[in-house]
Automatic annotation (TrEMBL):
It comes from the Bacteria. Pathway: Carbohydrate metabolism; tricarboxylic acid cycle; isocitrate from oxaloacetate: step 1/2. This is citrate synthase (unknown stereospecificity). Its EC number is 2.3.3.16. GO terms for biological process: tricarboxylic acid cycle. The keyword Transferase applies. The gene is gltA_2.
Length: 254
């Protein structure tokens, strides 16, 4: 599996998510100067318009997070009018930076809103993955130190999920984009597609499976059930229909 010609196992070992984003957008690895400029641009635009934070309160707290993300992402078009012309290369670039910068902030706010905790604003002194973890799990009542192991794991997860050719959500975004729709609306459409159980819903199913297993001591029993053809239980999150022989992503999941 390749990202713009680069094997993903190589990228997961030797690169980081922001460098991979540069590669996907530009088709080549950045120089150190190009990477520093790219990283600075992303880091300095992680905040979202304060009015957008109030939109969360229009949703029930038990709303599915994908429903909230669809709404909030689409609403970006109502706040950032200077990057909606898809025929303008500069507008496309600005929209790409805004989506890359602000998506972790919005995703973390979705989670915080669902559990009734206050929003945590971005920190420019942290890495992309570290900032996301901090926004997800820090609270005002006690300090939160980003675990470097979890930080690296999150960065690798983002790299491995950065591109998967012409999948359902990519096709949806491109179809919406073919009409001339603005990038924020197109990505909102892609999120709606990702919500489907046959696409991103598989990740949700994997989390539910882990909750069902609940303890290390239960693993042998669930492995036995997974091997039993007469049992309806299936291990979720392992392999992919497009990689029946071997999944290159699995070598870098740890």
């Amino acid at each position: 599996m390749l990202h713009r010609g680069f094997p993903i196992d190589q990228l997961a070992t030797d690169s980081n998510y922001l460098e991979v984003c540069y590669i996907l957008l530009n088709g080549e690895k950045p120089t150190q100067e190009q990477y520093d400029e790219f990283k600075t641009t992303v880091t300095r635009h992680t905040m979202i318009h304060e009015q957008i934070t109030r939109l969360f309160h229009a949703f029930r707290r038990d709303s599915h997070p994908m429903a909230v993300m669809c709404g909030i992402t689409g609403a970006l078009a109502a706040f950032y009018h200077d990057s909606l012309d898809v025929n303008n290369p500069r507008h496309r670039e600005i929209a790409a930076f805004r989506l890359l910068s602000k998506m972790p902030t919005m995703a973390a706010m979705c989670y915080k809103y669902s559990i009734g905790q206050p929003f945590v604003y971005p920190r420019n002194d942290l890495s992309y993955a570290g900032n996301f973890l901090n926004m997800m799990f820090s609270t005002p009542c006690e300090p939160y130190e980003v675990n470097p192991i979890l930080e690296r794991a999150m960065d690798r997860i983002l790299i491995l999920h950065a591109d998967h050719e012409q999948n359902a959500s990519t096709s949806t975004v491109r179809t919406a984009g073919s009409s001339g729709a603005n990038p924020f609306a197109c990505i909102a459409a892609g999120i709606a597609s990702l919500w489907g159980p046959a696409h991103g819903g598989a990740n949700e199913a994997a989390l539910k499976m882990l909750e069902e297993i609940s303890s290390v001591k239960h693993i042998p029993e669930f492995v036995r059930r997974a091997k039993d053809k007469n049992d309806s239980f299936r291990l979720m999150g392992f392999g992919h229909a497009c990689t029946k022989i071997t999944d290159p992503a699995r070598h870098r999941n740890a």
